[in-house]
Specification:
With 151 residues, the chain is α+β, with helices and mostly antiparallel strands. It is built from three helices and six strands, in the order ββββββααα. Helices cover 36% and strands 28% of the residues. The strands form two sheets. Strands 3-2-1-4 form a four-stranded antiparallel sheet, with no helix packed on it.
């Protein structure tokens, strides 16, 4: 099945000396792991399209959700794509994404960032503006004669 990468976090597993990426895929609720052995691993980025099978394995208290390349495609790609071609293809895809971003930016289409940190910061900013408006309200003052107080 084909998926679009919405979020991507790269990390290195020291014990295995391997790189992995944890991704959020379009249409998948869970975080999915992709290992460095995945075809064109170096080319993966936000907005990239990946094709593979999601496999869930339970290992004790841990549940591992991994994206594997389709079985029939693995045999063909191992013979057809050398590492240099994979790198060039990946860089080409990244350049296309950057060119699209620049074109969208020129046309006034700026992508929104709805990360939790940005949303929380914006909520605080709006709340502080509400408080500032309330503090600037001036109430009319009346002078009270102390003799009018009934106690």
């Amino acid at each position: 099945m084909k998926y679009i990468i919405n979020e991507l976090v790269k990390r290195h597993i020291e014990k295995l000396n391997k790189d992995v990426v944890d991704v959020k895929l379009d249409g998948v609720n869970e975080k999915v792991t992709i290992w460095q052995d995945f075809p064109e691993f170096i080319a993966l980025g936000v907005g990239s399209e990946v094709e593979g099978d999601i496999v869930t394995k339970v290992n004790g208290n841990f549940t591992n959700i991994t994206l594997y390349p389709p079985k029939e495609q693995v045999k063909q790609e191992v013979k057809a794509i050398d590492p240099l071609t994979a790198i060039v293809n990946g860089l080409t895809r990244r350049i296309i994404v950057v060119e699209e971003y620049i074109e969208n930016h020129k046309n006034g289409k700026i992508p929104s960032d709805f990360s939790a940190e940005k949303v929380d910061a914006r909520v605080k900013e709006l709340d502080s503006k509400k408080v500032a408006k309330v503090e600037t309200i001036e109430y009319p003052t009346e002078e009270i004669n102390p003799e009018d107080i009934p106690f």
